[in-house]
Amino acid sequence: MRRSRATAAAAGALAVALAAGCASGSAGESAAGTGGPRPVGPVTMVVPFAAGGGSDIAGRAVADGLASVTPGLRVDVDNREGGQGAVGYSYLLGKRGSPNFLLATETSLLAIPAAVEVPFSHRDYTPIMKLGHDYTLLVTRPDSPITSCAQAAEASRQRRVLAGISGAMGPDAVVFDQLNREAGARIDTVPYQGGGETMAAVLGGQVELASLNPSEVIGQLRAGELKALCVFADQRYTYPELADVPTSVEQGVPVVFAQFRGVIAPGGLNPRARRYWIDAARRFAGSPAYRDYIASEYLQPRPAFGEDFADYLAAARTDIEQVVSR
């Protein structure tokens, strides 16, 4: 399946899911704390994906971490999956001005508006904190003749090579598009619902390659069920389990791409509410809870707050639009 066809199909499903998300968002307009200078009562951390994935893990870690450094604060997690994240973002759109809502965000915030027409962009929200970067690994089965990123590109020019991706419009699609453009590869992609399905497809031999986050595949790498060909980064990971994985750049493949993970709030916040959340995020970034989360998910710590996070989003949007909107 070519990515262009998959994107068109995903757009149709996205429209249906998006309508539901917008409806639920507008219904919640009367949420507690709307327009105030700080949250009143329990806060909701919206996770725009199902429980158990990277975004859910991030959302729960931040929810607990913020509460641990802010006396009296309670943050509950609400999974609102659908539309490859669009349902959750649309729900938050309906909470404009309320300091009682946060959302665990990642690259879908930029990729969805670049790929299909939706009523939101990153500018409609208040950037609070970028947690770090999640550089993906190119993986395959141990019995694959491919042993490096460069060899994967070469093999795809000689025969058909299939790669599994998580969603037709997400970071994995960006990585393989860059690999095709920058390294002359001809890899075809097959979209799955998430990292778990993608990994199952590689293990089962339905596809030969996948671009997966370290936390998703570390168990399979340890067990020898998968082998890592490279990490799409310009520097190696320093974690002992990943230190021996070469970078794409080392192998002569100029593809570097990181999925970011972060936290946003609704747009239109009272300036005092915005400062409240940024201050809380800075305290979280200096806490053991933040360090534990980064280490447990094998992230590269790259915290940024407020306007610095907004600047990062603006720059990353340009890069993603060049790929996803094709």
Automatic annotation (TrEMBL):
Record's keyword terms, sorted: Signal
Pfam families referenced in this protein's UniProt entry, alphabetically: TctC
Source organism of the structure: Saccharopolyspora griseoalba
Gene3D superfamilies for this protein: Bordetella uptake gene, domain 1 (3.40.190.150), Periplasmic binding protein-like II (3.40.190.10)
Position of the signal peptide: 1-19
PANTHER family reported for this sequence: BLR4371 PROTEIN, TRICARBOXYLATE-BINDING PROTEIN
Record's protein name: Tripartite tricarboxylate transporter substrate binding protein
Domain of life from the UniProt record: Bacteria
Family (UniProt): Belongs to the UPF0065 (bug) family.
Entry annotated with the keyword Signal: yes
Listed InterPro entries: BUG, Bug_dom1
